[in-house]
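Feature request disguised as a bug: please show the residue count (381) next to NAD-dependent protein deacetylase in the output. Example input:
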Amino acid sequence: MADASEHPECSEDKEFTSEPEEETKSSPEEEEEEVDMDVLRNLFSRTLGLGSADKVLDELSLEGVARYIKSDKCKNIICMVGAGISTSAGIPDFRSPGTGLYANLKKYNLPYPEAIFQIDYFKKHPEPFFALAKELYPGQFKPTVCHYFMKLLKDKGLLKRCYTQNIDTLERVAGLEGDDLIEAHGTFYSSHCVSYSCHKEYNLDWMKDKILSDRIPSCDECSSLVKPDIVFFGENLPARFFTSMKMDFPSCDLLIIMGTSLQVQPFAGLVGRVSKSCPRLLINMEKAGQADPLLGLLGFGSGMDFDSDKAYRDVAHISTCDDGCLALADLLGWKEDLDALVKQGKNWCDSPGGKTKDDEGGETADKPSTASAKQQEEESR
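Example output, currently without the count:
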């Protein structure tokens, strides 16, 4: 199943997936307030002309981005991705007219489409969610070219982190591991009992067995409902999202944003967390995340600026995510590497042993890597 850039954001309920690392740790609500304060600081800094904004790219184009990546100045790349990177795998996004997920939920007799991801509705009526989950369950879809491009960035030693709004686990299937990922809207990879007094954890195989056999998952210990660790409307984002972004974004040399409308906060606000000099590349079917024109005239806003006379670091490449990644790989001289990685990945997914390796190091078939992909490609010639 996949998430979208419009997937459930956080609100008031207690966090259900993460425990505080120490007693002095801020709550998710305090973390979000701090994000808001950072945005205000950036606004005042821009308005008062404080700080510098060095131009890093020699050209605001995909070619300019490629030249920068090949330089020794670009060492830490962060990817921000949404549902658009998974649509070519056959997973619908949320809001596209006619084809989006919300446009095809009439058979579930919901009071409104978003109710299927509303935590209060889910606890009372879990049947629609699990029926939908069976249709779109992880494991029925394969990673896309875009997923493997991010794995290639990792193999090249350039990927700092991937921040994903998706819950389809395809980043993991493509070869990214737990430390490479911030799954901002949660994941099907694990599940928990919804009872706060129990909170027993269950793995992917356990949940898959229940969903595919049309059984509503209930806890073995207390018989309460068990929910995949995806973030519903009415729940907070994982605490790791807030702690990691503080460490990752200040050291980011290039931000690559793919397949997201940048409409849902606090995820969308990540684009303003990088330094003023950090280039930002958007690969999407349309421009997204642009600053409000009125606020821009007043000097406010940390949104994307692709077209104004003041644009100096933001590049929009309008295409599918797969085509954009192929074009960038070609400019970088990585096309053969990417083609071989995609081919090996598809073979791995089709093999009997192909499955996602768990974070505990469970034995599985080897995941795709650039080195082994190139070796397989050479052997097949």
